[in-house]
Amino acid sequence: MTEADGNVALNESNFELPQFEEDLQWFTANSPSKWHEAIDVNASAAIRATIAVLGLVTQEWTEMQPKDTMPIRTVQAVMKYLDGPSSDLKKNISVLCKGCSRSRQRTLGYQHRIAEAVRALADAATETESVGIFKRLGEVLSKVEEHLLFRHAVKGEYGQEKAARSLMIKAYAAELKRLTNKALTSRVRTESAE
To answer: Which of 153, 161, 175, 194 is deepest in the core (most CB within 10 A)?
Structure first.
């Protein structure tokens, strides 16, 4: 991919975005809830790429809440639903989503943002309108960002938004590349070039 076609190239070995620094700057300067406005991607690929970003925090859930598998089971159900939607799976996701609400209540102050993000993911996966899907995916990304910032705050590190967003967009871009064999395309950069 070249700069002229407005794509961001990925270095597959470390998932960094070595070229087109202005794209990375845009993503790190803007709230993750706005990213889908700037990324040209279909809903299914967006959900799967968002799951990859969610993976940045779900491992912590598994370690810190080993007896509460509700959020992890919800993510697994969503992935299965994406492979082949059915009304039974949709009902299962709905029940699991309610379980995520209970998980959130049990972990308020610590990992509750992870359960909130998973609940928003479940809502996105079962949403029928693309506007609703992308709105919910924005919620997922915002909750992941909040949790990553919480991790930094616990250590007394503040002002880490850029680092958190950079980590998130790299995970998103790597999954998008894996799914579509295309590099991340930024509409913002493409439109400004025209």
So the answer is: 175
